[in-house]
């Protein structure tokens, strides 16, 4: 690892964000399973990781929309499943999904975050598997040392 490197590949299928002290699954649910997931499917995917104690941990979860927002990097031009640009660090392999489920929910809707547009939005939890939704589980890997990007939209402060 280079001094000051933000994302560290742990060599066990995870990537640690040293800035926000989060550990992410290196590949998302689409890359791991070869198919899209529903809201329920995202939660089942996370539950299976916890049952298997993936990478030695059983505290994996669906990320908060703000955690996804902090993962967005406009300067990174990685590629999704369709060869389109997604703004996610190169520590994560190409071929990922572009829109991830987030944990926040309200009635029939849940939050989703799009790595094309740097946008979080509400989507129906009943959205089908073929809607190109994915899940990239996360876990807390310590206390974050950097504050920032705290607005709900993420638009008030750029680092």
Structural descriptors:
159 residues, alpha+beta, Mannose-Binding Protein A, Chain A, four-stranded antiparallel β-sheet, four-stranded mixed β-sheet, 10 strands, globular
Describe the structure.
This protein has 159 residues and is α+β, with helices and mostly antiparallel strands. It has a single domain (7-140), classed as Mannose-Binding Protein A, Chain A (Roll), CATH 3.10.100. Helix content is 16%, strand content 25%. It contains three helices and ten strands; from the N terminus they run E-E-E-H-H-H-E-E-E-E-E-E-E. It has helices spanning 29-33, 39-52, 65-71, and strands spanning 7-9, 14-17, 22-25, 78-79, 85-86, 99-106, 109-114, 119-124, 133-134, 138-140. The strands form three sheets. The protein has a four-stranded antiparallel beta sheet with strand order 1-2-3-10, with no helix packed on it. Strands 8-7-6-9 form a four-stranded mixed beta sheet. Strand 1 (7-9) and strand 2 form a beta hairpin. The longest helix has 14 residues, at 39-52. It starts with 6 loop residues before the first strand and ends in a 19-residue tail after the last strand.
């Amino acid at each position: 690892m280079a001094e000051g490197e933000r994302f560290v590949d742990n060599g066990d299928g995870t990537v640690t964000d040293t800035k926000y002290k989060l550990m992410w699954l290196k590949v998302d649910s689409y890359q791991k399973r070869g198919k899209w997931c529903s809201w329920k499917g995202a939660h089942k995917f996370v539950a299976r990781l916890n049952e298997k104690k993936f990478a030695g941990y059983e505290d994996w979860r669906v990320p908060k929309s703000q955690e996804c927002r902090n993962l967005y990097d406009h300067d990174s031009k990685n590629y999704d499943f369709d060869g389109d640009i997604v703004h996610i660090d190169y520590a994560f392999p190409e071929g990922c999904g572009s829109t991830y489920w987030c944990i926040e929910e309200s009635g029939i809707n849940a939050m989703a975050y799009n790595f094309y547009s740097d946008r979080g939005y509400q989507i129906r939890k009943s959205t089908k598997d073929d809607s190109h939704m994915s899940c990239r589980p996360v876990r807390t890997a310590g206390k974050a040392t950097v504050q920032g990007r705290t607005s709900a939209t993420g638009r008030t402060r750029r680092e």
